[in-house]
Amino acid sequence: MTIKAGDNIPAATLKTMGAEGPTDISTDEIFSGKKVLLFAVPGAFTPGCSLTHLPGYVVNADKIKAAGVDTIACVAVNDVFVMDAWGKAQNAEEILMLADGMGAFTAALGLELDGSAFGLGTRSQRYALIAEDGKVTELCVEEGPGIDVSAAEKMMALL
What we know:
This protein is an alpha/beta fold. The chain has a single domain, classed as Glutaredoxin (3-Layer(aba) Sandwich). It is 29% helix and 30% strand. The strands form three sheets. It has a five-stranded mixed sheet. A two-stranded antiparallel ribbon has the order 1-2. A two-stranded antiparallel sheet has the order 6-7. β4 (71-76), α3 (80-89) and β5 form a beta-alpha-beta unit. The longest helix is centred in the middle third of the chain and has 20 residues, at 47-66. It is globular, with a radius of gyration of 14 Å. It starts with 12 loop residues before the first strand and ends with a helix. InterPro entries: PRX5-like, Redoxin, Thioredoxin-like_sf, Thioredoxin_domain.
């Protein structure tokens, strides 16, 4: 079942790149007591994700945070090394880059995507959500290819 507004973010452990290397980070650490704008992409370094989706959040990070968001996070079913390299390549210093390497968090949200036709295997659907203290207040899932409802500008209008 897909998560919806009013639901709590499920407990999960993701990975991020810390000063000492790959670091576990729990959804509790990410969401508890904070307003978080989380967006998900089917894959790091893929065209739409690299040319439009992540860059929209990078260039609008200051405005998003000025609107009361504590954390802007990007998640993908990729490994932590790929997410770290992609974040650096995109100058995404203000974005918490999260690796859901095995897709467990994505599955818990009910937002998996079968990317096998593109040689990707199981990935995440493209979406964005706003959560306050771990409770989803807005969820915008793309219905097909392209970046519309989960774009930074659309999410900013919901803040």
